[in-house]
Amino acid sequence: MNLESAVSRTVNMREQEIARRKAHRRRFKEKLIERFFFLNGLTAILVLGGIFALLFIKSYPAFKELGVFQFFLGAVWNPTSYSVPKYGILSLIVSSLMVTLGALAIAVPLGIGCAAFISEMASKRFKEILKPAIELLAAIPSVVVGFLGIVLVNPIISKLFGISHGLNALNGSILLAIMSLPTIVSLSEDALRAVPLTYKEASLALGANRWQTLVRVSIPSALSGITASIMLGMGRAIGETMTVLMATGNAPGLTFNFLEAIQTMTATIAIELGEVPYNTTHYYSLFVIGFVLFVMTFVVNLISDLILQKYQEVER
Amino acid sequence: MSKKLTERLGLGLLAFSAVLVLLFLGVILFDIFSKGIAVISWEFLSQPPHQGMTEGGIFPAILGTFLVSIITVIFAVPLGMFAAIYLHEYARPGNTTRMIRLAIRNLSGVPSIVYGLFGVVLFVQMMHLGTSILSAGLTLGLLTLPWTITACEEALKTVPKAYREGALALGATKWYAIRTNVLPYAIPGMLTGVILGLARAAGETAPILFTGAAFFLPHLPKSIFDQFMALPYHLYILSTQHHAIDKVRPIAYGTALVLLGLILLLSFTAIWVRYHYRQRLKG
Predict the structure, then answer these.
(1) Collapsed DSSP state (helix, strand, coil) of residue A262
(2) For residue B123, what pLDDT is reported?
(3) Which is deepest, A228, B1, B107, B206, by most CB within 10 Å?
(4) How far B3 CA sits from the closest chain A CA (Å)?
(5) CA-based nearest residue to B11, from A51, A122, A218, A291
(6) Which tens digits make up the pLDDT trace of A188-243?
(7) Contact A228, A184 (CB under 8 A)
(8) Quick check: B244 and B238 in contact, CB under 8 A?
(9) Is the CB of residue B75 less than 8 Å from the CB of residue B143?
(10) ipTM tops 0.95
(11) Which of B4, B20, B21, B125 has the most A C-beta neighbours within 10 Å, making it the best mutation to test the interface with A?
(12) Which segments within A4-104 are labelled E, that is strand?
């Protein structure tokens, strides 16, 4: 009797041990799987850090050889000159900012107007046409937009202003405006739609008309979201390559005239990286441009991100 | 009276801006379709360029874009999917998770030409993959990574919490619950996002400029270590770099139409998948 119970107890303990081990193994496997997914999750940080690190490493030799001042204060970009190569990227930065601001001057009023139309006025039917249309506009590749800049916008500008050709900053601004419109419209519309209905109703009940309600109540309440959308559109415009490469004429030089040909930072990289030998000063200085571009878009995106984050907190 | 007038004027302005946006799209599509359709033929789609690209077709460019897209998908989809599974199913709120999300949002704002620079250094130079289909595909894969992660996470969000809890309550492990009760319902949504990302990647030019795209190649690529011709790069060359730009303008329009058509086709496929999947979930 005693023996039997002792045997069954041992068997029981053995079974328990096996079950425990099994559970342990299963937990271990689960941990391993979680680890695996975690490592995949880390790639985003790794890639972003990698881009920053490689751009810095590759631009460092140029900084070291030429000094920071030559890059940011020099207005002349002429790295292939036989006598004295010049590596000033000031004109390139100014050109990039110029087309970007020009684009925003067109896209911001148009984008907010379109967003306000969708959220406040459009019938359901019209909304169903407009929203996919804007998505479609976002899907058009930049190289196709640049091509249209050459074949469509170029002759119009040259005729309108009586100049020999229309490949200039104005052309680039118009194209970039079209490219940043989808971002501005869809995010501004989200922001306007998030404004509580009670705000609008209160305004209307006090006798304000729809226009006054929009301008004095809805848009101010949605301002942070709208600002974020503009910043994102701006980030997209600064970093856009193919459209400006094809439509702005590519003549490096410091100018503030929208009717002159310019050369942006992105276009400079696109034109010259394919032609320079690896690991020369010229090559490294192209990475300086890339590094500056990366930092600029990073800051712009970070600001829009912070605004959006804050605005979501307020909403809750 | 004047208040009424400003209201009318203001609201009219809103309507005008919406119409203007539609007009932009209309003009773009009309111009490409009306001028591109004339050169589209079976020959144009199936033949290589002849006579210094002034005659013949664009088959090598179509093939090149197709091959690069395959590399992009093979590289970016598993990585993006796994990262999304981590973020949505495993990650606990905290600094690491916040950093990952911040990195993803910032990656989607990095200019495509910067990805090109990164690709040149990492894939072409450091990993010695050369200017090739592989290098270009990997570069585009990195570019699409943030979109893929976001799209896959959105798809995971649509799966009701009860599906997970049901499996866990019956004693399933976490991974078993995800594998059998979450992923099958999320995959069509992920597919939609992946196709849309691919459509955007296929039209990108800047990242492939220095990582493998070639001006003109007399032969089709034999392996993934060869250079390739691509539709967007071909369009760029035909419209800016060619010695007889006016002569090849019709071919440029045809190339633009094929590229646009390919992207629209992919986008509509994605929308169809989404629609089909929603119908099935309802039924």
Answers:
(1) strand
(2) 93
(3) B206
(4) 8
(5) A122
(6) 999 999 899 999 999 999 988 888 999 999 999 999 889 999 999 999 999 999 99
(7) no
(8) no
(9) no
(10) no
(11) B21
(12) 77-78, 86-87
